[in-house]
Design a protein that fits this description.
Layout (H helix, E strand, L loop, with lengths): L1 E2 L4 E9 L2 H5 L6 E4 L2 E12 L2 E9 L12
Antiparallel strand pairs: 1-2, 2-5, 3-4, 4-5
């Protein structure tokens, strides 16, 4: 769907989460889907073992460096 005010798409993704993901879900700020980084705007942990991520708008913030970028 499209938010006409902010002109970006909003998606919900269901991911299978391991214990590490659950313990650190409050630190998830973006997801990369098909080469595009999207802001995570909401996380619903109520459907264990899944996390439901609501994403919308492209992420333009910092990202961790990969080992081949050093």
């Amino acid at each position: 769907c499209v938010d006409e005010k902010n002109e970006y798409s909003v998606f919900r993704w269901s991911i299978l989460a391991d214990p590490f993901a659950y313990d650190n879900c409050s630190r998830i700020v973006y997801v990369e889907i098909m080469g595009t980084r999207w802001k995570v705007t909401e996380i619903d942990p109520s459907q264990r073992p899944r996390l439901i991520l609501t994403v919308g708008g492209e992420w333009h913030g910092d990202t961790p460096r990969s080992s081949d970028e050093t």
